Amino acid sequence: MLFPVAGVQLPWPLVPTLGFMVGVLGGFWGIGGGWIMTPGLYVLGVPMNFAVGTSLAYILGQSVLASLRHREFGHVDVRIGFGLVGGMVVGTELGARFMEVLKRSVGVDRAVGPLYLVFLGAVGVLTLWESLRGSTLGGLPRSLRRFSVPPIIQTSEGRISLWPLSGAGVVVGGLVGVLGVGGGFVMLPVLIYLLGLPTHTAVGTSIFAVALTSTFATFSHSLKGNVDLEMALLLFSGAVVGTQLGAFATLRARGAQIRFGFGAMVCATFLSMILKLVGFGEVAPWVLLGTAALMSSVALSFLLRPENAGEIKDGKG
Amino acid sequence: MKFLDLYREHRLLYSVLSVLVMVGGGTLFALVTDLLLRGRGCSSR
User: Fold this and answer.
1) Where is pLDDT greater, at B20 or A5?
2) CA A241, CA A96: separation in Å to the nearest integer?
């Protein structure tokens, strides 16, 4: 199937299948999956600027769906979401403009590829560190809550200065603009550990902020010629089915199994990016797609188990 | 090639359409899944 805007030809079942697998894994781990989607498209032969832009369009659909769901549960603090979004939009635009500079100079593929390796390496090390410690950053002071330089906004969790929210937004927005990730997994620790939001509110608010930011990011990248809408829709159609199944599978899995799968997927994505960058482009898709297929099959196999079986065995969940 | 020419000429329209289609898609699927879950008695409402 030819995708004329991106200028690539891919076997058509491959695109919704990639969306389905990322959807299953995203639903299973409670993430958007942009960090699998962008490298996934890239190793399949989609130019990096289109991989980033199209992945952002896919994230827009997914985050709108998820934030509507979280709004139903009352997990969205709209004021904090809008507080974050100003900085995120600035960061996203800076990232998208940085990509334009790369297009005209060294090339997006050559620059963003290594950046992805640094990013995936950091995610892998942090995941490993967290699982080895057995706990998270709970000991950190909630220093951003104490920062009281005006303007101050009233939220569901008390009064918070707009400055730290905007600062965090700029950093996460930069990642969104350059790497084509949603940024929710970076925003989440900031909201929980530095702002002291309850986990459910942090998840819902983070997804709401990602939805607002990816609206702008999709528009900005599309204007710069980096979005293939046809490909994004095919990815999204596969992902919506996968996300629902993945979310149900989580109820039946153990916490350790979920974390192990996440670590394995980070390693496989890292390895496939290295293979692609050093000239083994024909092997790279097999490593990433093979691992994604294996992990999503394992995740789906939990659907055959009785609900909460994992919780009972694991204790911690 | 006609599509590509249209795309190049109307990039702004394509960008607006991209946002509307993806937001609409997300909203539509949220409504559909909500209806399906409500039908099975699983909705939050």
Assistant:
1) B20
2) 30
